Amino acid sequence: MTYCVAMHLADGLVFVSDSRTNAGVDHIATFRKLHIFGIPGERLIVLQTAGNLATSQSVISLLRQRLHGDAPNLHNVPTLFDAARLVGQTLREVVEHDSAPSMTAGVDMSSSFLVGGQIAGAAPGLYNLYPQGNFIASTVDTPYFQIGESKYGKPILDRALNHRTTLEHALRCALISFDSTIRSNLSVGLPLDLLVYRNDSLEVPHGYRVEEGDAYFEAVRQQWGNGLRQLLQELPSTPASYLGE
Amino acid sequence: MTYCVAMHLADGLVFVSDSRTNAGVDHIATFRKLHIFGIPGERLIVLQTAGNLATSQSVISLLRQRLHGDAPNLHNVPTLFDAARLVGQTLREVVEHDSAPSMTAGVDMSSSFLVGGQIAGAAPGLYNLYPQGNFIASTVDTPYFQIGESKYGKPILDRALNHRTTLEHALRCALISFDSTIRSNLSVGLPLDLLVYRNDSLEVPHGYRVEEGDAYFEAVRQQWGNGLRQLLQELPSTPASYLGE
């Protein structure tokens, strides 16, 4: 499985991905799911992937291989919308190429992507690309997208996140969301890859990797877990009628 | 959709169910999913249902209709294990009866059940009955079961619940779990039906219904939501390396 979240906020973008893949619970491996494209001072395009790993890796490989030509590629498309269309088109190409009916044997070849970033001259953007290759854009009302195992980590985002949340606070929300997901689903796991982008910086950051035992993540997990237990203890006493008394 | 949780703790049992059913988002209705059988001083058997409503209602109707005969029924089976087997057998009977291939048209007729309670002379028990009619029992290690839309509300149970949790505290955990689920999935909704059973009381409580605007539930939701936001604010500051600085 996989869990990726991307946020499009007033101050910039936040991306966090886990790195666990599995083909059955007896076949677990670590693969990066956060991929960075860009030209410093001109554009940053971040891709996150979920679903069939062969499909998503082929899409990323083709996108990288084609960076140095005249045909439309992630280094020359004029807008982020065009970047998302290019990813969708490459996804369709890979799935068609790999889906000989005699070979797929019922395996789900589909992948989904989050595509976010900024190209000089326009505002930052974030797209959620479906396995069909079409996509939707984030808005002020819906400032985040998730792909993969999204449910365990959604309640905290719904409660605590809005368009005006600061990047630092949003990143902490994302870490809590990952902590909840990792605790409830074995197939989502560390390390986490994260990347924070500030509007109009047009930098191409290399992001940060949260490894097992990372001091800050451990501190956040522990303080959050203790805090939740404390909060539960402090809830008002249950009326007798609730307890059937 | 549906969300039901049942807990088997050192001091007794806690059951909470929502009451929203839907056949598409344009066809939403309220149906009780917590059903109580019992003879005061002798036995309590609580059933919670998820899945196809026609199937689960037929199972409950047959179980009620057959209470007054010599054949095995929920008022005369000697053990809770036998009660769970009887529910499973009735489920198979209903699904076979209603599943003429020419009629089901791809509709999923399956239902799942939680069956818990106590029969005089034995300890309380809790079973999670699969759509196939077979079932597993809760244990000290796994003191709760969920059916229906379980993911949004699972992290708080995994963090805060164990076999030795008090009934009152467990009930508050369940209410928080429902709050998270209701916020994230429109197809789970109020009113909630809840029932708390203390070991060896052998009472047949009628439970409590949490309606829209219930003062205690509202107070819990509000205190929890505010507390979470406060906890997030108090988390340690994010290191510069996380922010790519």
Automatic annotation (TrEMBL), chains A, B:
Q: Which GO terms of the cellular component aspect does the record hold?
A: proteasome core complex
Cleavable signal peptide: none
- For this chain's UniProt record, which GO biological process terms are given? proteolysis involved in protein catabolic process
Entry-linked Pfam families: Proteasome
InterPro entries recorded: Ntn_hydrolases_N, Proteasome_sua/b, UCP009120_prtse
Name listed for the protein in its UniProt record? Peptidase
